[in-house]
Prior knowledge:
Layout lengths: L2 H20 L5 E6 L5 H12 L15 E5 L10 E5 L2 H17 L6 H12 L8 H14 L8 H8 L5 E5 H6 L1 H12 L6 H10 L2 H5 L26 H17 L14 H4 L2
Helix pairs in contact: 2-9, 3-4, 5-11, 6-11, 8-9
Amino acid sequence: MNxxxxxxxxxxxxxxxISIRYASSIPHYPLVEYPKCGGTWVCRMLAESLALPFAQYxxxxxxxxxxxxxxWKFHPKFENCTYLMRDGRDVMxxxxxxxxRKVGNPNQKNVDIYIDKLRKILGENADFQDVQANLxxxxxxxxxxxxxxxxxxxxxxxxxMNQPKVHYxxxxxxxxxxxxxxxxxxxxxxxxxxxxDQIERAVDHFSMKRMTGRNPGEEDKGSFIRKxxxxxxxxxxxxxxxxxxxxxxxxxxxxxxxxxDNSWVGRCDPAQNAE
Length: 275
């Protein structure tokens, strides 16, 4: 039995309980996201901006001032909490490449397990590189059996949406003007810790160029940080994938302001958006 996943689950649950009760007094600054929304990147910037540690890989309960990355379910007693949002269509594409990256990585342990999982999702003869053909089935699977989170993208966002004590941040705003977005967020979250020079340094320190040597949009399918752009879903969503996603979560896409209605489905043609 591998004890590490068990330790992580227990530690996470205890940390969550501590944060629910004592976030303001410690203080804790939890950043909650549905997976693949950029949470690790944002936590690093927030931690440096707030001059606090980021408890990224802790397998022990965290009870000290820190920024905490998680995918927790909502609780009404959370304080100092940030919810990071991202267009669910980009999340689906990011998740797909995350799965297939493991299959193509020669250093990945137990690669056969990942191949078997993908074949069960996509079919025995599926070409894993054919993203457009595979996305509809992959999206359906990810909504039916969420990975890295107990809820799917729709339910997780719905639970956290419009909560009075929660501070919100959009991945897209960070990509548009990261310094402005982080400055505004820190001012709202912890105005007593606002240091604009420190924020600028943090944003530069954890920019994609510094972290990977690539600019946003320069793709590396073998990297955890693959592309770092907004709207990449347009290059991969066929009409079928769009109909699947719209049927599963189109209402939340509209509620979050990513679309005004579902007319985007009819305009979905990756051939017109290929880079």
